[in-house]
Amino acid sequence: MKNKFKNQSGFTLVEMLIAISLFIAVVTISIGALLSIFDANSKAQATKTVVDNLNLSIENMTRIVRFGSNYYCGISSNENSVSNCSGGGNSFSVTFDGSRIIYRLSGTTIQRSDNGGSYTDITSPETVIQYLRFYVFGSDTSDSIQPYVIVVIKGYVGNKPTTQSIFSIETLMSQRKLDFN
């Protein structure tokens, strides 16, 4: 009697289990790579948001410092107050277009006040500022140094640790009008 199962073709149970296991392994690795790409995209978008927002805020500060006068390290509503601080301060005041503009860190945002009025946020809520320092030099008219301000800003954007982007910015802003004696 001839074995009738010998000529039949097909997969054995062991071959099927191996094929399914390999398929599951490939799918798992592919999904992990896809999730990494989505996280990288979220991080890139968050970085773009912080760069755009901080760029606008710093450009606004730079314009006011460049065309302003009477720099004061700290908060002063007096338009004629001047004060250097080589050790850095948490706030900064400058006279611009007849107004006293004040910048400060409040919580995790940079705020601005015009003429001692209410403070408004100039950075977005998604941008978390952890450190802000203003260094003022040459504000005293008796010295021979052109007035300038150095601003140091540190923080991050993103609420999940995997998508957070940390930033550290240091910029120098100088007065456009020469005041050499």
How would you concisely characterize the structure shown here?
With 181 residues, the chain is an alpha+beta fold. The protein has one domain.
Features:
30% helix; 5-stranded antiparallel sheet; alpha+beta; 4-stranded antiparallel sheet; 181 residues; 1 helix; 9 strands
Could you walk me through the main structural features you see in this protein, from its secondary elements to its overall organization?
- The protein is α+β, with helices and mostly antiparallel strands.
- The protein has one domain.
- The protein is about 30% helix and about 35% strand.
- It has one helix and nine strands; from the N terminus they run H-E-E-E-E-E-E-E-E-E.
- A hairpin with a 7-residue loop joins strand 8 and strand 9.
- It is rod-shaped.
| Main sheet record | 5 strands, antiparallel
Strand and helix order = HEEEEEEEEE
N- to C-terminal separation? 119 Å
Helix content: 25-40%
Uncertain residue ranges: none
Our count of helices gives 1
Q: What shape does the CA trace take?
A: rod-shaped
Q: Radius of gyration, Cα only, in angstroms?
A: 30 Å
Counted up, domains total 1
- The helix/strand class is alpha+beta
